[in-house]
Amino acid sequence: MAFGKKGVVRLPAFAKINLCLHVLGRRPDGYHELRTIFQAISLRDTLELSITPGSSFSFALQSNDPAMLAPDNLVERAVTAIASEIGFQGSVSAYLDKKIPVARGLGGGSSDAAAALIGMLRLTKKKIPLERLLEIASSLGADVPFFLFGGRALAVNRGDEIYPLEDLPKRTVLLVSPQDIGVSTKEAYQWLSTELTNRAEPPKIWKFCALCWSRQGVGVSNDFEGPVFGRHPRLKEIRDGLLERGAVDAALAGSGSAVFGVFRNPAQARRAARAFPEDSVFVVETLSREKYGRALGWQVTG
């Protein structure tokens, strides 16, 4: 969709997977303390923004997915927050072409929000300090700061404190998203909290692997798999099926319910995808930070 106006930008909003995701326990502020490795992948939504300067602020959103138009959606929140920060007055029109499945642990909503922040800064040619931009992103959601960077990154605290890591060689990823199973982040944490309470001792931070997929690493891992697989056994069957069909590694994506497998090449991944005819499947690739930034027309600077 094109708005036919001056001041239009069209941005990809890429998905992510968690290569390692460890939940260390509940924090005093009610959130959970995380150690995770985010990896951007090529599956994406597309966000188109158009601005027209005026005397007052207004926002309008359209989407191919009506569920994205709910009040207080992340795109609107992001546009409103950055417009207030930079003092933008005028109308903002947005169209969101939704491709990333919702409630699958792939970060689609957070990525849309980050794309909205970047799009507004590009359109208005405004700059704000990186520290402040990260504060705004974090206020929208714990995953949003990562999507300002892309590539591969370590995240700590709530998952909103980001440390970019060296990119590894491109990998082929097969995502399997069951159409009849959705797991909200809230549900996943409630289920995991029960397990954390019942553990004899908390997980040790030294078990965390910041070198996933390197020769020193120990492969992917995700603390949500126990409680989520316990309630949705088919997700474990999908993970095991990916491993049986040649995946080097396989795990739950984020808090679920998508499952990903890492394959040696796209042909092998496409062959494995045939085993899941009832599910949505996506053969994608990992994105380096440089490629991610080029696609967004954006470079994070301090």
Following the backbone from N to C, one meets helices and strands in this order, namely EEEHEHHEEEHEHHEEHEH
Molecular shape: globular
Mean pLDDT, as a whole number? Answer: 88
Largest sheet: 7 strands, mixed
Fold topology:
Layout: E1 8-26, E2 32-53, E3 58-63, H1 74-86, E4 90-97, H2 108-124, H3 130-140, E5 152-157, E6 161-164, E7 172-177, H4 185-198, E8 221-222, H5 225-231, H6 233-244, E9 249-252, E10 259-263, H7 266-273, E11 280-285, H8 289-296
Parallel strand pairs: 1-8, 3-4
Antiparallel strand pairs: 1-2, 2-4, 2-5, 5-6, 7-10, 7-11, 9-10
Helix pairs in contact: 1-2, 5-6
Tags for this model:
302 residues; alpha+beta; Ribosomal Protein S5, domain 2; Alpha-Beta Plaits; 2 domains; seven-stranded mixed sheet; four-stranded antiparallel sheet; 8 helices; 11 strands; 30% helix; globular; disordered N terminus
How would you characterize the overall build of this protein?
The structure is a single chain. By secondary structure, the protein is of the alpha+beta class. The protein has two domains: 160 residues, Ribosomal Protein S5, domain 2 (2-Layer Sandwich), CATH 3.30.230.10; 114 residues, GHMP kinase, C-terminal domain (Alpha-Beta Plaits). Helix content is 30%, strand content 29%. It is built from eight helices and eleven strands. The strands form two sheets. Strands 1, 2, 3, 4, 5, 6 and 8 form a seven-stranded mixed β-sheet that branches. Strands 9-10-7-11 form a four-stranded antiparallel β-sheet, covered by helices on one side. α1 packs parallel to α2 and α5 packs across α6. The protein starts with 7 loop residues before the first strand and ends in a 6-residue tail after the last helix. The N terminus is likely disordered.
